[in-house]
UniProtKB/TrEMBL annotation:
Pfam families membership: PrsW-protease
Classification lineage: Bacteria, Bacillati, Actinomycetota, Actinomycetes, Micrococcales
Protein name per its UniProtKB record: RsiW-degrading membrane proteinase PrsW (M82 family)
Entry-linked InterPro entries: PrsW
Keywords: Membrane, Transmembrane, Transmembrane helix
Length: 402
């Protein structure tokens, strides 16, 4: 006598392993469907590489002609130093569900080359118009306070809108919006710093270079990322919201906040003299502390979201409650990887890391399924992730038992 078929799952409920086994011939993934970022030569498309080379060459010629090769080279090296702090910070935020390197590198290159080129043209045109209707000094201040924040935050934020629109399966909400915004802004600040450092050196000598480097490279390296993060928060909220009003309004409000904060900073630096700059730095420090607190909260929030949306898979037998608890915090994840390394060496560590990566993406996929309608492609992606998690668990459990 044949056994009865497992009951199909209710709408919106994850199917049980028995249902999958009954319905499909399981094809458990032999490779990790959510590979952790590794830098390889194929990460960037030929178009991005070609555009980056062309724009990079144009910037090199422009800076070399304007400031000379020596100061341009020195300023480039100096502009690299803040990146060693800013970029790792945003990668730290991105650990639960790490974004592919091809998108992160593209974001940085767009910020460093694309958005700066567009902003340079727009700022120059706006400055020329203001010069024609007011004095040179007033035009400089108005350009810095009114035009530059508008154009720069618009062109930086454009990348976030493109990612949200064309890569919706990779854009998973608030954290992704913050990470991409920070990386784009880091690229923008890198190119802009070359210009500011070299310009200060030409105009004021070594002392001007040193002062500008301290202010922009040491005291305020997070300014551009802080501004653009506001746009990233708006786009991130829109990406996970089922409300059309939120989708329309949140990015605009975030962008307005970025432009306003950017403009206030430029006002303190341009029109307030030394006292204005000190006031701006003091306010910037308070804002930075709040910014760090918010990002720490956002990272922990993502862990809670992952735990919440993995619980249905524990209820249907795909995961244990202990595994859900482990997957909900970075501290527990690190302990699990250490355990896997101790018992299974490099193979156990790789399998555990892949298990964790798949679980993160599965939770965020379930979140999208919960808030939006889902199609056959989404269900197939869920199946691939579940199959891979099962295979990876067998690997690290098998390594332990040997």
């Amino acid at each position: 006598m044949s056994l009865p078929s497992p009951q199909p799952p209710a709408v919106g409920v994850p199917p049980s392993p028995e249902w999958y086994t009954h319905q499909y011939v399981t094809t458990q993934a032999q490779t990790n469907p959510t590979p952790r970022p590794t830098l390889r030569t194929w990460l960037l498309s030929g178009l991005v590489v070609a555009m980056s080379v062309v724009l990079g060459a144009l910037f090199a010629l422009f800076y070399g002609y304007s400031f000379g090769l020596v100061w341009t080279a020195i300023s480039l090296l100096a502009a690299l130093l803040p990146l060693t702090l800013v970029v790792p910070f945003f990668l730290w935020l991105d650990r639960f569900e790490a974004e592919p390197w091809r998108y992160l590198v593209t974001a940085f290159l767009y910020g460093a080359l694309g958005s700066t080129a567009l902003a340079l043209v727009a700022n120059s045109l706006g400055g020329a118009f203001l010069m024609s209707v007011t004095s040179a000094q007033s035009a400089d201040v108005l350009t810095a306070v009114l035009i530059a924040p508008f154009t720069e935050e618009t062109f930086k934020g454009l990348f976030l809108l493109i990612m949200w629109w064309f890569m919706r399966h990779e854009f998973n909400g608030l954290t992704d919006g913050i990470v991409y915004a920070g990386i784009v802004a880091a690229g923008f600040a890198f190119t802009e710093n070359i210009q500011y450092f070299a310009g200060a050196a030409i105009e004021h000598g070594l002392g001007g270079f040193a002062t500008t480097f301290v202010v922009r490279g040491i005291i305020s390296p997070f300014l551009h990322p802080m501004f653009t993060t506001l746009t990233g928060i708006g786009v991130g909220l829109a990406a996970v919201s089922a409300s059309r009003a939120t989708k329309a309004v949140a990015p605009v409000l975030g962008w307005c906040g970025a432009v306003l904060c950017h403009g206030l900073w430029n006002l303190s630096a341009s029109a307030g003299g030394g006292a204005g700059l000190l006031l701006g730095l003091a306010c910037g420090f308070v804002a930075f502390v709040a910014f760090v607190i918010f990002l720490v909260w956002a990272r922990r929030r993502e862990g809670r979201i992952i735990g919440e949306y993995l619980m249905p898979y524990a209820a249907t037998g795909w995961l244990s409650s202990d595994e859900v608890g482990m997957l909900s915090t970075m501290k527990a994840r690190r302990r699990a990887r250490s355990w896997a390394k101790h018992h299974g060496g490099a193979t156990g560590t790789a399998s555990m890391r892949s298990f964790q990566d798949c679980a993160s993406e599965l939770a965020l996929l379930r979140r999208r399924m919960h808030r939006h309608t889902f199609d056959a492609e989404t269900l197939q992606r869920e199946r691939v992730l579940l199959d891979s998690m099962t295979a990876r668990r067998r690997e690290f459990a098998g390594a332990v038992s040997r």
